[in-house]
């Protein structure tokens, strides 16, 4: 998964004033002149934003070395995320984001997005402005585990298996698995508002982050063009529903999302040309209409239906009655 899941969980729990964030720059750069590693860099504001970069092969761009929304490292003044790991003596070589960092103890709490979103959901409720929001309710854990078991391997990771396949055979297997999972999500969400049931959960965050980037990035870059979210009214409205939740739209920076993907892998895109794209985020601003799944449905025996006057007024004609830091 990705840093995006943590940003969404933080917003939905109302932890913005409790857990600060530092957004790294989108384009991977060489982190140490002594080796070949490329990775995440902090913004370089040293020349009033006039610094520019290319991709790690010295091609493409030039691209800004800083954006107004991206900051320098406030803890160690590190140049790269790699340096953060090295400062705390974690030298396994992964150097990934997100990082949940304890600024008081100066240590990494977690760098696994699935663990971080669970922590954000339950460990900081006394500080959260939306503590009543539970994204992992006890009575839905079984249903969440069931959908997570195929969302991650077939969709979250499935796009990467398509994009980084080294043989036609591997790509064919990956795209078949991805397409089936896409259709499975569409089928489920055509009958219920959220992927694990009636309530919004962490499973929806996991699915949303992949669908958000699907048309703008994966269809082009990772060759996942058997399907498109924009061509699925069900999945498009599902994305609209989540995008329009309080605080979520503010976490989306499609420009930087695209710049990261299209400019960080010179072996896939030598000159780091960023496609203009369909402006998918604009589509997310239209009404989603998925509140209809919340309409109460009451049944009585012999196929007769009893509906209260209040429910009648809400039914639509097309509804059947039945001190921490995240880096």
Describe this structure in words.
The chain is an alpha+beta fold. The protein is 38% helix and 6% strand. The protein is built from eleven helices and eight strands. It has a four-stranded mixed sheet. β2 (29-30) and β3 form a beta hairpin. α1 (3-13) runs parallel beside α3 (113-122) and α4 (141-156) packs parallel to α7.
Q: Kindly state the number of beta strands.
A: 8
Number of helices: 11
| Helix and strand composition category | alpha+beta
Rg over alpha carbons: 22 Å
User: Strand order within the widest sheet?
Assistant: 1-8-6-7
Shape: globular
Low-confidence stretches: 296-323
Strand content: 5-15%
Main pleated sheet:
4 strands, mixed
* Helix percentage range: 25-40%
* First and last CA, distance: 15 Å
Topology order in helix (H) and strand (E) letters? HEEEEEHEEHHHHHHHHHE
**Arithmetic mean of pLDDT:** 89
Quickly list its features.
two-stranded antiparallel sheet, 327 residues, alpha+beta, four-stranded mixed β-sheet, 8 strands
Summarize the structure.
This protein is α+β, with helices and mostly antiparallel strands and 327 residues long. Helices cover 38% and strands 6% of the residues. Helix 1 runs parallel beside helix 3 (113-122) and helix 7 (202-221) crosses helix 9.
What's the helix and strand layout?
Layout: H1 3-13, E1 19-21, E2 29-30, E3 38-39, E4 52-53, E5 63-64, H2 81-87, E6 100-102, E7 107-110, H3 113-122, H4 141-156, H5 158-163, H6 168-189, H7 202-221, H8 233-243, H9 254-263, H10 280-283, H11 309-314, E8 324-326
Helix pairs in contact: 1-3, 1-7, 4-6, 4-7, 7-8, 7-9
